[in-house]
């Protein structure tokens, strides 16, 4: 989208202090399993939650996406939706954020995925799909039960105020058994809070309940390892 003029140029290059909360930055800098675990909870096996983004960054990103959507509307441009499950939201890589997101994956998510997801390609993440999902009135309502087309998924709530919209996880399955029931120990439901991240296996089955009031906006980064998949 070469004619698009960004609203907030500062979003397009990572400024760690402006983007991330101090505890997250310190843990990444220390770069040990212990430092990661000191800021992360693991409420179900392979699912990690932690505080990640500064409130100001979240608000700037939401307004950048709104600005892009208005521009796309004015120029009668057809906006690609993030995946087949969404009618709303936008692909961030489509309006210039791909370099920033690549660095986000390489410098801030790969260190974590090397430690926690090495067995699924977490040590060799080499490509991404970065997008925004939006729920509320005149937007998407919920997201059906699915697995992501990723090795590792980062899902961060950006805002704003909403009720409902909980994420639900139901364990991992092979392709043949994707829709089988979850066991009680696999059941994990999570109410997202702005600025907070959930990191999970792309193949961990999940969905999002209906947002019943307000406006929910999340940043998704599907992190992939083509080099690993090429070998399998
Ligand atoms: O609504 C959410 O937070 C979940 C989105 C999601 O699972 C996805 O886009 O893959
Ligand atoms: Fe997903």
Automatic annotation (TrEMBL):
GO MF, one term, reads:
iron ion binding
Q: Where is the Fe2OG dioxygenase domain?
A: 126-225
UniProt keyword annotations, A-Z:
Dioxygenase, Iron, Metal-binding, Oxidoreductase, Vitamin C
Q: Which Gene3D superfamilies match?
A: q2cbj1_9rhob like domain (2.60.120.620)
**Keyword Magnesium set for record:** no
Q: Which PROSITE patterns match?
A: FE2OG_OXY
Q: Name its co-factor(s).
A: L-ascorbate
The name of this protein is Fe2OG dioxygenase domain-containing protein
Native species of this protein?
A: Pisum sativum
Q: What is the lineage of its organism?
A: Eukaryota, Viridiplantae, Streptophyta, Embryophyta, Tracheophyta
